[in-house]
Amino acid sequence: MFTNEEQAGVYKAIFNRRDIRSFLPDPISKDTLYKILEAGHHAPSVGFMQPWSFIVVSNPDIKERLAWAADKERRALAVHYEGEKENKFLSLKVEGLKEAPYTICVTCDPTRGGSHVLGRNSIPETDILSTACAIQNMWLAACAEGLAMGWVSFYKKNDIRDILEIPPHVEPVALMSIGYTDQYPDKPILETAKWEKRRSMDDLIFLDKWGEK
Amino acid sequence: MFTNEEQAGVYKAIFNRRDIRSFLPDPISKDTLYKILEAGHHAPSVGFMQPWSFIVVSNPDIKERLAWAADKERRALAVHYEGEKENKFLSLKVEGLKEAPYTICVTCDPTRGGSHVLGRNSIPETDILSTACAIQNMWLAACAEGLAMGWVSFYKKNDIRDILEIPPHVEPVALMSIGYTDQYPDKPILETAKWEKRRSMDDLIFLDKWGEK
């Protein structure tokens, strides 16, 4: 059983976790980094396939190339927005990839566990869903450690495969930058920037069937 | 900042969360259920699209139909296993869907947020990855509340759409049964059943490039 304070800690991490784009250069201890990776490895996975790997990037040249790939994709995507949304979009930072002491590429190997992974036979994408659960565990652990994380999802997967020498069948699911920050907002950056509003819980919950209240 | 006990609570939830298949009939308070759904709603989402909805099933007839769909798929999948693995596979329970006071169908609407959701333009599956983060939040919150959850991923999505009247473009990502249990194992059920071993952390971590240590 959880004490009240332990339980409060879980909700505190869930409600205060933010997607952070600005990092201080302060180093992270190896022990703390390991704890966060271990939290990722304790995610649920379909058929216990544990499809994730973690490429921990600290080499400045490689971080620079990752930032280049993300910036290239950001500029390509910006073409699809017009006016105010384009400006808001272009103001989003990818420099976090260079600033943060570590960027972790979280990958998913769909072949791990063999041809007939239990559960994945029905819903093949459960492998990347498991990997997303690992990412969420890492994010909450980082939050509990007083660290900030940012999930960059602007890139062409083959650029990341080229830079990090990832085999073609392995998916680079996320680039997670991690570090200390002095810019930790109360609300999601995209909510404050009025990109999107937080939806009301009432609109998201149905009883017994879709659309029923 | 987190106190030591709050931080310990986060890791306790991460390391003790288990996929549970047996539930007691004891009811769950509405307040606790709401807190768990709210934890889900506070997951990260690409472009803040918040693609999830939660269909909370408590009607026994509908739970029975969900269990029927899962059992049908389980029997179909069992054909692909032979010998000992088939027996282990068929011993997996889907009755949890009927036993648990609630089964929550967590869905993902890929159209939410419009045609150009920030980040989803690069990697379309980030919508279901966001939904998986919501599921992980719910699971950890349930654990902190002393509750058990089980993720059922054996089903044909269209069976679940038919039963719960989910629109064709919305993905039924997971069926999450939730309740109290008297069977809460230390280790994953599939690890104890020797279906798969837990992988060593050393095999999962690379430095700067895939395959480098």
Walk me through this protein's architecture:
Two copies of one chain form a homodimer. By secondary structure, chain A is α+β, with helices and mostly antiparallel strands. The first copy, chain A, has a single domain, classed as NADH Oxidase. In chain A, 43% of the residues lie in helices and 14% in strands. Chain A is built from nine helices and five strands, in the order ααβαααβαβαβααβ. Chain A has helices at residues 4-16, 30-41, 60-78, 84-91, 96-99, 126-144, 157-164, 189-192, 201-204, and strands at 52-57, 102-108, 148-152, 171-179, 205-207. A four-stranded antiparallel β-sheet of chain A has the order 1-2-4-3, with helices on both faces. In chain A, helix 2 packs antiparallel against helix 6 (126-144). Chain A is globular and about 45 Å long. Chain A starts with a helix and ends in a 6-residue tail after the last strand. The relative contact order of chain A is 0.21. At the A-B interface, helix 1, helix 2, strand 1, helix 3 and helix 6 of A face helix 1, helix 2, strand 1, helix 3 and helix 6 of B.
